[in-house]
Amino acid sequence: MGLVRVEIIVNVLKMDALLEIIKKNKITGMTVFKGLGCGVQYGTPEYRENDTSVIELLDKVIVMIVMPEEELDNFIKHVEKGLYTGHIGDGKIFVSRVENAFRIRTGEEGQEAIVPGNL
Questions:
Q1: CA–CA distance from 94 to each of 45, 72, 76, 104, 118 (Å)?
Q2: Tens digits of per-residue pLDDT, 14-68?
Q3: How many domains would you assign to the chain?
Q4: What CA–CA distance (Å, rounded) separates 18 from 12?
Q5: CATH number for the domain including 92?
Q6: Best exposed site among 4, 8, 91, 112 by fewest CB in 10 Å?
Q7: 101 is a domain residue
Q8: Residue 75 Cα distances to 24, 71, 72, angstroms
Q9: How distant, in Å, are the alpha carbons of 16, 66, 86, 92, 104 from that of 30?
Q10: How far apart are CA 110 and CA 48, in angstroms?
Q11: What is the pLDDT of residue 90?
């Protein structure tokens, strides 16, 4: 199996919960970006179809993780369960394939480049 990149976009208030899920799943590396954004509801607390009069950009956090594909399903299940409220704004998860990864310092590539090893 290969590598996948998981990008999780959530409200900043959910970051602590997400970090706890990442820790429990023994994820060893991530990159975090601060951002602004909105979903189909344009940043409003309720979705009103055809109401595009105002777009409110909300504080978001984007967490990017590259991980072995075989760990993906279990990790996604934990993220969905841990962040679910059933309300607008629970977040989004995007998954894409990663062709390869390289650890510059050691020359390792593939899964060896993303897991603890030659620290």
A1: 23, 11, 10, 26, 29
A2: 999 999 999 999 988 899 999 998 877 766 666 566 666 688 888 999 999 999 9
A3: 1
A4: 10
A5: 3.30.70.120
A6: 112
A7: yes
A8: 10, 6, 5
A9: 14, 7, 26, 17, 16
A10: 45
A11: 87
